[in-house]
Amino acid sequence: MQVAKASADDTPSNRPIWFDAFLLGVAAFVVFAATAQYHDPLNNDTRASAIAAWQLAHHGNATLDAFYPHYAWLFESHGRHVTDRLPGTVFWGVPFYAALGGNGYPAIYPGALAAALASAVTAGLLFAIAARLVSRRAAAVAALLLAFATGTWTVSADQLWTHGPGQAAVLLAALLASRQRWLLAGLPAGFAILVRPHLGVLAAILGVAGVMHFRKARPLWIAAGSAGGVGALLLYNHALWGRWTVFGGYHSTASASAHTLHAFAVGLAGVLVSPERGLLIMTPAIALLLPGLRRAWRIADWWVRGATIAGLLYALMQIWLSRFSGGDGFYSYRTILEPLTLATPLLVLAWREWTSATRGRRTLFAGLATASVALHAFGAVINWVPGGVNLPPWKTFMPIDLARHIGTGQTIGWIAAALTAIAAAAVLTWRRSTPAGCESAAAPQTVAVA
User: Fold this and answer.
1) Burial (0-12, 13-18, 19+ Cβ within 10 Å), 439
2) pLDDT digits over 383-396, tens only?
3) Full-model pTM
4) What is the spatial distance between Cα 267 and Cα 335, in angstroms, rounded to a whole number?
5) How far apart are CA 59 and CA 76, in angstroms?
């Protein structure tokens, strides 16, 4: 293994990490806000969260009788109609509807801006985390790819889904835990529980991993910090449903058919390779990181491993709890977004340790990464999803449906632009003789080359 000097543009910056993270987050927010959905029809899930946030902001209660039966996911409880959407996303939307929502009727744009900001925070936090593993240049690329080459752009930043606040919360918890700020790490971990209760696995895994690594009990303070989220969730659900429960009204919509081994296997395959919702289909660049996971795991710090394990366990629980049917009213994938976010630090290491090691791999990755961005840019800019409920996920490919919607002329233009961008990225990467930015944060002056 030969060691070479890093290029001048990879030298350490005197600016604080948080400043660069802020700038990247602002840039991401501008793009997200420009491409979010501001028109009907909204997905039923996001609409239910939005009206609940508006109601809480302007009337101080969760009673949604005025919206029944015109909106989905509203159920009668103790003489009034309430939503079964979990409170974390609702709480995230409240300040936006308090400031921008008006008093007469809930508008769409406050929820869209709330989604855009949550995803922008996610991008900034990922930069701050990745900068601990690679150079700032490489960390910026990693953050921008999570933001624009995944469903973060077309789902989390598009409408008021659970995924935007969830992604930001788990990344902040992981960042604080990596800095041994255990009690503080528990606060965003507790908020993640309000967003989706089984995201509580993150606090549990990070706490245990911290105890095993440091051989001290102090990491368990993360559980104390996250206990506030559990308590708030129980109180909220008791106020709405009259019983102490974690999942609130989700029992009303739970599908018994989801909890079988066959459904679990279909769901696992679906979130990875189905044409409509497959992670490896819509973000093919990830495929070129997978061979480096073993090497990355060997050198990964405890918190990188802990976050990855937590993401994997969450994904397995989510697939078991929810029957895979593709979903409706959104573009690309969403179920796997939180696990992907938690695994991104390990994927960054996989890039540094394996993908960036040769010119051919770097070039191929650049092309695939650009293709991943192009696929999501298509959906984010067009911002139209085919109608119909539960389109067959094994037969539906969203880009083709969008192409049919906009016509042949525009489609040819999009394809030409995408191919040009892919070729340019590949050529520029090939011409660069060294893998810029692949050096570790601990040794910023050198890089490993094949």
Assistant:
1) buried
2) 988 766 667 889 98
3) 0.92
4) 10
5) 19
Structural domain that includes position 202: 181-254
Give the pair of three-digit tokens for residue 245: 């429960």
The CA distance from 109 to 36, in Å, is: 9
In a domain, 188, yes or no: yes
Whether 383 is in a domain gets the answer no
pLDDT of residue 260: 86
Is 211:220 a contact under the CB 8 Å cutoff?
yes
For 100-111, the pLDDT digits (tens) are: 977 778 999 999
User: What token pair was written down for 277?
Assistant: 């919702």
Tokens (6 digits) for 143:
């953050």
Look up tokens 């030298």; give the residue.
11
pLDDT of residue 5: 37
Count of all residues that appear for the chain in the document: 450
Tell me if 261 sits within 8 A of 350, measured CB to CB. no
How many structural domains does the chain have? Answer: 1
The pLDDT mean for the chain works out to 90
Is the bond leading into 219 cis (omega within 30 degrees of zero)? no
Rounded distance between C-alpha atoms, residue 174 and residue 342, angstroms: 8
- Is 74's pLDDT higher than 60? yes
* Nearest of 188, 122, 185, 144 to residue 341 by alpha carbon: 122
Give the C-alpha distances (Å, rounded to integers) separating 249 from 81, 84, 241, 369.
11, 5, 7, 40
Side-chain-side CA neighbours of 213 within 13 Å: the count stands at 19
Contacts of 133 (CB under 8 A, 6+ apart): 139, 304, 345, 348, 349, 352, 440, 441
Number of continuous H segments (helices) and E segments (strands) in the chain: 18, 4
87, part of any domain: no
Query: Which residue's entry shows tokens 């910023």?
Result: 444
User: Cα separation of 132 and 125, whole Å?
Assistant: 11
pLDDT confidence of residue 284: 98
194 inside domain: yes
> Tokens for 373?
């961005």
